[in-house]
Amino acid sequence: MANDKFLFVVSGAAGTGKDSVVKALREAHPEIEKTVSATTRTPRPGEQEGVDYYYRTREQFQQLLENDQVVEHNFYNGNYYGTLKSEVEKRLEAGKVVVLVIDVHGAANIRRMFPGATTVFLLPPSVEELEHRLRGRGTETEESIQERLATARQELAEQDKFTVKLVNNQIEPCAAELYQVICQRAGLQG
């Protein structure tokens, strides 16, 4: 797709602050669009349909997959997560800068489908800080935290496959760095 230079993927291990960094980026630069993913997990308190996720049943998600309406998906912690094809295409066709927040496996699929996309890997300052962030959520069991840390170590090993790596020491400075990457790669004035 001709406009895939406007597509940016932000990825990294759970707890690296992907959503927080992209939220800060979009607050400072609301012209940058973030697609809303679909998931089969239940909403967390305060999350809204069509804002945080499109919440779907397993059957609905399977139907989307069968109809080739999901550009990337993964099964993680017992739930499906995916990016709807329509969410990406309508924004790129309009010439909008799009930021996808997806896991490392989904990023690999995006690289294949949209070769002009820029993939950004967010790194935690350290594995210890990553564990601190996961525990600080207060939403995970000890078993879940250990599973997420094991997955995080595997995901961190994928970082060299990404176009750009950024360390998320603090949310706002990392968002500003991400904005500079977007401006540079998409040919925008920063």
From TrEMBL:
Signal peptide: none
UniProt EC number: 2.7.4.8
PROSITE patterns cross-referenced by the UniProt entry: GUANYLATE_KINASE_1 (PS00856), GUANYLATE_KINASE_2 (PS50052)
Keywords: ATP-binding, Cytoplasm, Kinase, Nucleotide-binding, Transferase
GO CC terms of this entry: cytosol
Stated family: Belongs to the guanylate kinase family.
Function noted in UniProt: Essential for recycling GMP and indirectly, cGMP.
Name of the featured protein: Guanylate kinase
Species for this entry: Faecalibacterium prausnitzii
UniProt gene name: gmk
